[in-house]
Amino acid sequence: MVRTALVGAGVLLVILSFGTVALAQSDCSKIVPASPWGPNDQTGATNRVTAAVTKAAAAEIQTGKVITMSYPLVDGVPLFGSRFTKTILTATSLAPGASFGENELTYMEDTWLSQSHVGTHLDGMGHIGRKDCYYNQTPMGKFINQNNMTKLGLEHLKSFATRGVLIDAVKVFQAAGKLKSNAACKKPCLDKGTVITGADLQAGLRMYNVTLREGDIVIIHTGWGDLFEQFPAQNATYNSGAPGIGKDAANWLVSQKVVAVGMDTWVVEVIPGENPKEAFIVHNILLTDNGIHIIENVRTDLMAAEAASTKRATFFFNMTVPKAVGLTGNFVAIDGIQ
Amino acid sequence: MKLPTPAFPRERRRRGVRGLLPILLVAVAVTVVAAGLASAQRRWVVAFANLTEEPGATLEGTGFTGPEVRESFALAARSYPIDLVFYDNHRDDARAVANAEAAIARRVDLYVQYHRGAAANATVAQKLKAAGVPVLTINEPVPGVPLYALDNAGAGRMAGEALAQFASRTWSGQPTVAVVIGRVSAAAERVPERVGGVTEALRRRLPAARLTTLDTQGNPAQVASLLGAFLAANPSRKVLIAATDDTTALACKAAVEAAGRARDAAIVGQGVDRTIHGGINDRKEIDPTNRNSIVIGSVAFYLDRLGYEVLPLALRMLRGEPVPARTLTPHKLITAANVFIEYPPYDMN
Q1: What CATH number does the domain located at B44-149+305-318 have?
Q2: How confident is the model at residue B335 (pLDDT cuts 50, 70, 90)?
Q3: pLDDT at residue A18 above 80?
Q4: What is the mean pLDDT of residues A178-194?
Q5: Which of A39, A252, B158, B220 has the smallest set of CB atoms within 10 Å of its CB?
């Protein structure tokens, strides 16, 4: 009896000590800030897209011209690391006698085997963390199963129906006489490693006389996407680095209370980063700490050209994100409507 | 006798001075603030004269190249109010002096000299001093000039400590020998200092381990025969291997495996260049998913980050702040446990 009690106490002690360790490891309150939308918030910056914000954004539709802002998703486009995207035609009714009914209905279906962060895609709240702590102090280790996350999935996001604002960084750098293009770009582009600062962003806004509003989505044109368009020929160059925003610009965008930041690069932030010992730090600033989405591989050249010709860099941002339960991100299609 | 009446009575003069005082103070304050703003906004032109830009030529007995060093300056400068002007010293004294003259003519604000040659370096320093251009030197001491340098002996000690610690933890009580292998006699690149550091640490931590030095003379192809013979001569001993660079460390691993002695060996390299650590896709020997490698680590020399270390010193000099006469590289042992912290993988390739 005594022995059983001792063994039981020992087991309890072991469980408690492991529990204590686990609790210490999952206390994210000192690692990631709390959401301004409360302890249960899993939505992040799309909380800013209110009915009033969407209504105001609708005023941007003046000519009805739709400009595509996403790249085709197809074999051969540049992909990060070991990511892949593959389609397989899995059902057809071509065989004799396989059509249905007197109307001889035929059909096609396919299976899409793909990772979610491919092509033009959105980074969700659960994509990037710090020491396993994600947006709104979420200890993600407690919220995953074999298939997906059980917190911070895309199903919690609200609408992205808001105003888009294009900032033409190529023009900014040209005007400042500091554009260093890359020889592989067919059109002017910022070279990899070029840091876009908060001052650069503000200069870009002044070019089109735009002031950011809470709830805007900021899209930055660097010209680097020209290399994406040349796939697969320039994939290695495209993947080798990128121009992008640095910490200063990221913090300034946070202060502007935007919903998302997109760019025609695979990473939005500058690569190589400003500090070689920091990894994708702008992702931490925007996503982990502030719930601001990142949209990568945005096709920006068409909207940049449109803005240059119409002298208007604002548009209605039309993007739908599937309610993919537990996903960290997904490929998206974006239209900018002026 | 009547004393001459002052033009202004004393009291009135005092009042006049008192009246001027606030104006003077404001003027001084405005000047100070303006100077501060000008200093804060000022951009400096810094010249960096690289040891060599020859493609493929490695530096300091490591796997790093001149273009990697130059790139580190270009990347580091992004965070500072510094515009860089690059020169290539071509490992040539006359070129080094000519570069300094060109920089003086260009009126650069500071000169970073990376050249091997005491006489040329002294001439360069003298010319720049005469022109009022401050100088900072890399890896070669020049009298009166702040030095940034690798700590070869310290790096060697770090490698020796790592090997000794591994042996104590893993092979305690078993007969163990040690070998230092690589360009051990390359004095110009101070590799002997590295060897000395390894030796010192091993003798202190493992006094019973016999230490042998094998000179590949910079040819990694020599590793197989030299180390193969050494392994054959020590069939029943554990073997600690300190390689003087990463290429040699990898060649040692191949030689140990070829001899069927992987269970008896531990290797530490020097440098941490891209031959030994990789990224997301180009997995290399030191990698978080390869924790049981017999290459237990390599001591980082950070020549690919030299600019990040040197430019802050340059900026302090330009701002008139004191800098140490000698600043040493903060070498660190890089293993599978910390490689992605120290070298976060960021490229997609």
Answers
A1: 3.40.50.2300
A2: very high
A3: no
A4: 97
A5: A39
Kindly state the average pLDDT of the residues A73-101: 83
Confidence at A22, pLDDT banded by 50, 70, 90: very low
pLDDT-derived band of residue A99, with 50, 70 and 90 as boundaries? confident
CA distance B228 to B256: 7
Q: Does domain B152-300+335-342 have CATH number 3.40.50.2300?
A: yes
On the question of a common fold for B44-149+305-318 and B152-300+335-342, the answer reads yes
Q: Which of B101, B169, B109 is nearest to B133 (CA)?
A: B109
Please report, for chain A, the start and end positions of each structural domain, with discontinuous segments joined by +.
Answer: 44-80+117-337
Q: Are A78 and A88 in contact (CB under 8 A)?
A: no
Give the residue among B254, B259, B233 at the shortest CA–CA distance from B179: B233
Question: Residue A70's pLDDT is what?
Answer: 97
Out of 3.40.50.300, 3.50.30.50, 3.40.190.10, 1.10.3860.10, which CATH number does the structure's domain A44-80+117-337 have?
Answer: 3.50.30.50
Residue B347's pLDDT is 65
**Candidates B79, B305, B346; nearest CB to A271:** B346
Retrieve residue A200's tokens.
């650069």
Q: Where are the domains of chain B?
A: 44-149+305-318, 152-300+335-342
Chain B residues touching A240 at Cβ < 8 A: 347-349
- Please state the rounded mean pLDDT for residues A17-43: 76
Q: How far apart are CA B306 and CA B324, in angstroms?
A: 17
Contact across the interface for A278 and B344, Cβ inside 8 Å: yes
**Which residues are CB-neighbours of B117 under 8 A, at least 6 positions away?**
B93, B96, B140
> Is A277 in Cβ contact with B342 (below 8 Å)?
yes
